Amino acid sequence: MTDTPDIQIAIPIFDRLTALDGIGPYEVLQRLPGATVTFVGERLGEFRTENGFLGLTADAIYDDVPSPDVVVVPGGVGTRPIVQDDDHPLVGWIAAVHPTTRYTTSVCTGSLVLAKAGLLDGKKATTHWGAYDALAALGAEPIGDRVVEHLDDRIITAAGVSSGIDMAIRLSELLVDETAAKAMQLMVEYDPQPPFDAGSVDKAGADVMARVIEYAKTKS
Q: What superfamily would CATH give domain 7-192?
């Protein structure tokens, strides 16, 4: 087996996050040799996801994890109050740890938090398609790619929810090698074969978009 150094991965969690934004990358990255994953928060204990049905537990506070190798910031409705708060501890922690990370990354509207921390000024970045305007307002240039890399700056952003799995497989390659990434993909049997081809705005059609808007109103 290829020798790999220890890799400390931190996934910040907060109230009203989207579960798969964090859990998708977790399922991939926690399988890497030498990897440890810590869920961190502004306090210890449980944070509820955006619909309140699921709780995730922070086992460390931000000050406990001052130098993670990798940060994966999930998104969700809960990112909105974070970016509206000029003194939110998550934003300050990201700004503090980024200079020494190997990669600072986001999934979905987690990119809004990276932008608030000043990491995406003038940079192309991605997020959920419904948050392009919000991302632009924070100084980034939104694009529709599923994963956007700035490897010289050690920043990667992924689009909505499920794209975090794609990003985590790519991270596995960057952290170890291509074979390791393929091994992670096989271990989680990530071989998408959806019954419908409606996973992007361009493909979905007006009737599907109308239903998405209707459902989103009932969950907000």
A: Class I glutamine amidotransferase (GATase) domain (3.40.50.880)
